[in-house]
Amino acid sequence: MEILDGKILSNQIKNKVKDDVIRLYSEEQKPLLACIIVEGNKASETYVASKQKACEFCGIESKVVRLPENISQIELENQIDFLNKDETVSAILLQLPLPKHLNSTSAINKIIPEKDVDCLTNLNLGCLFSGYSSFAPCTATGIIKLLENNNISIEGKNVVVIGRSLLVGKSVACLLEQKNATVTLCHRRTKNLKDYTLNADILIVAIGSPKFITKDFVKTGAVIVDVGINRIDGKICGDVDFDNVKEYCSYISPVPGGVGPLTVACLMENTLYLANKKEIKTNKNLIKTKERNYEFNCGSCKKLRNR
Which tens digit of pLDDT belongs to each residue from 122-138? Predict the structure, then answer.
C-alpha cells in the first residue's frame, strides 16, 4: 500500500503559480481572489484562512468579504454584483455551504463566468460537461492531478465515484470519462452499493459520512481517493475507514493531507488562469508576453494556450 500524498504535489503546484505570478505580473498589478463568506460556519472560516495563506505564498492578492449570517438573498447577490464590476478582482469564490435560508445555486450564478474560479456557474459547467472547458472545479482537478502524479492509469479503468455533488462527484466523473475511464456514479440511495465498489479499480468517495467505506466495500488492490472531511471527537477523518482499509488497497489518500491541500493549490492555479484570461481580453499588448509560454495544467486537459 502506498500513500497518495497531496501535500507534496500541492507545494509543487503552488511554487509553479508563484513563479508565474512573479514572471507575469508587477507588484502593482497582481491577480486578486475575492472570497465571500457568510458568517456562522467554523469550518468555512478555517477553509478561507487556508486560502488566504496560499494566496500570500503564491503572491496573489486576497480579499475576504464577510457577511452576517442573517443576510438576505438580495443583499448577498448585490455584493456579488459589486465584485463582478470591480476591475481589480480577477476571481470570485463563494464559500459553501451557505445558511439554509439562502439559495446557493442562484448566488453562484450571479458570479460572471469570467470570474467563476470554482467553475460552478451553469455556463462554465456546461462547457466542462461538453468537453470545451480548460478548467474545472478545484477538488475535481486535484483528484485527477493526484492520480496522474502517481502514474496511476485512468484510461480503461473501472472507476466508481460515490457522491453526486457538482463540486466533486459529477465534475470528477466528467473529467475521468474524458480520460477514457468507465465511470459509475453512485450516491446515498444507490442500492447494493457493494456490487459496484467491489468492481472498482479506482474508488473515489465524497459523501460526507465518516468512515463509511470499510474493507468489505473494497476490491483487493484498488486505488482509493478519500475526499471526505469529517470531525469525530475533535479529530478529522475521511469517508473511508483508513486503518480498516489500508491493507487491502494499492494506493490510498489520507485525511487530512490528501485531496484537501490540492483543492487549495488548484484554486490558486484557477485564479491565475482567470487573471491571465482577463489581461489578454483587456490588453492586447499582453498577449505575447503573458500567454505565449504559459502552460496551464488542468484536470480536464493539458494544453499550451497560444492565442
Answer: 999 999 999 888 899 99
